[in-house]
Amino acid sequence: MTATITFKLPEENVEHVWAVGAPVMAASIAVALCQTRSWLKHGHPFETVEEAINAVRMILEEVAGVAEGSLA
């Protein structure tokens, strides 16, 4: 099967970045889910709720960076 997606650049740049980065974004989300599940199942190193929230925010910032175009 072959599929071709055409984008009108620069107007559709965001859509282009999302399409190209979708596999990386999906992988980043899967890693975030795995990490948080591990914390729930095996314990976590956090002493306060704020530390836990900050750790989750860091994970989400990485995913957001991928969504915004940093595909690394």
Number of helices: 2
Provide the low-confidence segments as ranges.
none
Estimate percent helicity.
55-70%
Order of helices and strands: HH
What structural category arises from helix and sheet content?
mainly alpha
Tell me, what's the shape?
elongated
Number of strands: 0
What is the averaged pLDDT score?
Answer: 87
Q: What is the rounded Rg?
A: 16 Å
The major β-sheet equals: none
- Determine the N-to-C terminus distance: 28 Å
Strand content: under 5%
Describe the SSE topology.
Layout: H1 13-42, H2 49-67
Helix pairs in contact: 1-2
Task: Provide an overview of this structure.
With 72 residues, the chain is an all-alpha fold. It is 68% helix and 0% strand. The chain has helices at 13-42, 49-67. Helix 1 (13-42) runs antiparallel to helix 2. The chain is elongated and about 50 Å long. The mean pLDDT is 87.
Question: What are its keywords?
Answer:
0% strand; 72 residues
Write a brief structural summary.
The chain has 72 residues and is mostly helical. It is built from 2 helices and no strands. The chain is 68% helix and 0% strand.
